[in-house]
């Protein structure tokens, strides 16, 4: 794969600049339990509203039944590449607890998952988040209780080598430049008036 570091207007931390979401993964590479534990520990220490800690993860490693059930819940287009991941995680939001509704639960899962993804980079791994899965199938497959909402699946793995073969435009898509809106269209002093 080509160098996918972000082209930024100012220097940012290398872990953030190096983070990207590949689909072309090494289907033989393993994600160790130790590394998975580090990812989940990073997620566990994310901030949350009132320290409600709403993020929960169902964790599957390639070859186990949990992995297969998560994989089976994915859309066909995501299954086509995600089967090469070393681990598949189902991120869920705990939307209620014994105190009632958990405010901003989805936001809390987003914060936790970004910690997880950045820790993956620090561990020499990559992680791609997917909304393309059947939530009801996942709910049924894992017997998720009321008050637990499946939000996203995260594929964790090792990027394939640059000369790895791909299918149906995978290599071209992986090598395409990354794009973001410019900072002038992202941060404002007044709406439409660039902050920088």
TrEMBL record:
Entries under Pfam families matching the protein: Nitroreductase
Domain of life of the source: Bacteria
UniProt source species: Saccharomonospora xinjiangensis XJ-54
Domain Nitroreductase, chain residue ranges per copy: 16-72, 74-157
Gene3D superfamilies: NADH Oxidase
Keywords for the protein's UniProt record, in alphabetical order: Oxidoreductase
The name this protein goes by in its record: Nitroreductase
Keyword field contains Oxidoreductase: yes
Record family assignment: Belongs to the nitroreductase family.
Keyword Oxidoreductase: yes
An example molecular function term from Gene Ontology annotations: oxidoreductase activity
């Amino acid at each position: 794969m080509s160098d996918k570091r972000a082209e930024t207007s100012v220097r940012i931390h290398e872990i953030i600049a190096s983070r990207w979401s590949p689909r072309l993964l090494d289907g033989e590479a393993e994600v160790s339990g130790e590394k998975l534990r580090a990812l989940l520990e990073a997620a566990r220490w994310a901030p949350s509203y009132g320290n409600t800690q709403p993020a929960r993860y169902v964790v599957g490693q390639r070859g186990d039944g949990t992995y297969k059930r998560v994989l089976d819940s994915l859309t066909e287009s995501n299954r086509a590449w995600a089967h090469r991941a070393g681990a598949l995680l189902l991120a869920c939001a705990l939307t209620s607890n014994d105190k009632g509704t958990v405010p901003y639960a989805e936001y809390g899962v987003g914060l936790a998952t970004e910690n997880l993804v950045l820790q993956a980079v620090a561990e020499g791994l990559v992680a791609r988040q997917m909304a393309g899965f059947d939530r009801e199938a996942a709910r049924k497959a894992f017997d998720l209780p009321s008050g637990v909402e499946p939000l996203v699946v995260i594929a964790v793995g090792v990027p394939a080598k640059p000369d790895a073969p791909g299918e149906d435009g995978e290599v071209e898509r992986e090598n395409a430049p990354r794009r973001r809106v410019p900072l002038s269209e992202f941060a404002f002093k007044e709406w439409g008036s660039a902050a920088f």
